[in-house]
Amino acid sequence: MLDKIDPRFLPRPALSRRRFLEVIGLSGAGFMVGCGPAADDAAPDSTDPAAGPAAADLNHFVRIGADNTVTVIIKHLDKGQGVTTGLPTIVAEELDADWSQMRHEFAPADAARYGHGFFGPLQMTGGSSSVANSWMQLRNAAAAARAMLVGAAASRWGVPAAEISVSGGIVSHGGQSATFGELAAAAADIEPPAEPALKDPAEFTLIGTRLPRLDSAAKTDGSAQFTLDVSRPGMLTAVVARPPKFGARIASFDARKALEVPGVTDVVEIPRGIAVVASSVWSALAGRDALDVDWADDDAEQRGSSRLFADFKHAVDNEAPLTARADGDTDAAFAAAATTLRREFRLPFLAHATMEPMDCVVELSGNACDIWTGSQMQTTDQMAAAGITGLLPEQVRIHTQFAGGSFGRRAAPNSDYVAEAVMTAKAIGGRAPVKLVWTREDDMRAGFYRPMSYHVLEGAVDEAGNISAWRHRTAVQSLLAGTPFQGAIQDGVDSSSVEGARNLPYRIDNLFVGVHNMESKIPVLWWRSVGHTQNAFVTEAFIDELAVAAGRDPYEHRRELLADHPRHRAVLDLAAERSGWGEELGPNRGRGIAVHESFGTLVAEVVDVTVNGGKISVDRVVCAVDCGIAINPDVIRAQMEGGIGQALSAALREEVTLEDGRIREDNFDQYQPLRIDEMPTVEVHFVASAEPPSGVGEPGVPPLAPALVNAIAAATGKRLYRLPIGDQLES
Amino acid sequence: MALELEVNGQRVTVDVPDDKPLLWVLREDVGLTGTKFGCGIAQCGACTVHIDGSPARACVTPVSRVAGKSVTTVEGVGSREAMAVRNAWRELDVVQCGYCQSGQMMSATALLESNPAPSDADIDQAMRGNLCRCATYQRIRAAIHRAADSLEA
Hints:
The complex is a heterodimer of chains A (731) and B (153). By secondary structure, chain A is of the alpha+beta class.
């Protein structure tokens, strides 16, 4: 079943299926989409009271209740990006359901049934791919379910199925009609069609319209359940004391004082630290404060941020990079150039800083491990828990909860916080369910981070004023090295280090992109838009400077260089037009532009700033997006607004720094995300597209930082090469 | 020690250390989990509740300080302003991950209870203490204006 990929479920080969397979080292593997009936033993959690006992599972994704609700089984994590609305929209469309009857429920961890359409048999959420990989899978599942409902009606009424129509959740023929709920039980016995007929997109009535989010109600009355809200009978709470430096170990510890704290029940050593277990969070924290630990840090990372940057720079200046892309003869073009420009860029470590710090609830019983958490990689965590407990993966049940943000953080290849919780539950003999809680300080200090990077960009301009050569060398830590996914690194090049750099879309005949793989003990991870966060910044800031240096308009110049990329051009044109590009702005004001493709989606942004002395006010961001068919335009708009806000936050101020290997910023008084008074007006415009849907969770992020520094340059003449911007304009 | 509190109009008795923050008492001892933990140092506002009608950060409020006072959480807030806020939040689909939104709505409700027609500057002032990592700020601002408009109508 896993040896052949059904092409129907590969909606978009151009959407880097190859890249996805590369990333997880599973090229050649595929997975089988489940349109058959769901087996009872792996039925999703029936936590939705609306799905009554008479509910019928028409397949692994669609359940119809006797009460006429349609529950869509969501194989992905909801971390705010809107999958609990987007995926039901696809189902409702092909099912011809009424939006008011739609519900959602998170799927259990099950790689075979709920694996990723691009990644293979791995259940995960990432790469802005939830809608893209579910698109044909859910259309087929819903169309099959619709055919089953029609088949049930046909046999009930003794009429040909072809004469039956479905609209707004009602199945009808002549004067007869029935709801989905009335037909559900009989429909479950109908053989699903092997190749259900899909709608012509011209007939879509829900896709492309504004539908209310299905999670809004629960998220506005306090009832939405996050991991931190989970409670189990007899549950204890654990916090973990972890090494203060990455790579340090426990030399010795004394638990006596911690055990004297009222409420503390256990102090246990686990491979990642010392877990203090108590009857409440407050007691656990007091117990941890009372712990006496000696750490051995002789093998730990001891470098501070400035030393790390110096090491990165030394590598670029003195060592040969690995080649990620080489077109033409870059050296010759530089030798023949009329003028050249060389710039160095620096970007810091960033924290995901999700509003809900990491957390996980684990309950062990004789032959089962139940886990409640919000995870982007359910089946990876399932395997990790199986390894720790000695159970089989299928004995590990994952109950996916809403996640209070993630941005990549809850997709740790080593399942860090899930592993801590399982290890702790095991260390106390499984005698009680354990809720692992991370404080904000734990969350900031224990990793993971968007990797810091150092870049040197060089451009050559010929006598005619054209860019004749481009050379980009980057020094950055690989995200995949040392993880189970490192097999995806090809010829030493981790694609996540150079994404957005080696696929530079501009027509430049001589082009070199090289990477220096840096090593440290600081744990790094994907952060909303991954390598694009740094590579879009440096490439779009540099192309802007090259254009201006050549006396060209930065928008027009990009446009000319994008003649072979009509989708890039279309978003660039739309953003320029809607922003009023070219108009006079007045003193201290500037307008900057950037365009970038990530996760199959094209986004251009125009940023307006006012700069007074060292103070930057971001007045407006105009965003143009082409993400293929826009399933839920308002959810996409929200993702662009949020991506822009988070990217602005990072560009202005965010930076995790180290002093002698120790993280300095450990709470929001020092690591300061954007607040409401700094949020610009964001306008989002769509390029109409009939292409299959592509990602929206991340692609709003990359163009913001370069458009911002380009705007600052337009306002002040000063170009910035280092993020965060911080107080650089004050000097 | 045993303490008597009034939470959402109901008297509850809890047996907890008197320095335990109200946030964790609400979540662990009273069983109301709509109020969230984000930072523990009054920097993010995810734990915002009303104490005698005024917004407060429950994560830094020792439970002993609210003895004899009235505590309102997102689960129990029911003023006209609170309902207008909730409706506006839903009409504009403000939420993304949703984790900070209890606190956002409690701050917004308190703002409208004291200022029925806030300006953008008033909103900035009242809402600056509430972080949203999903950056739903543009919609929060619009929803507060919409709620204010609906109260006026």
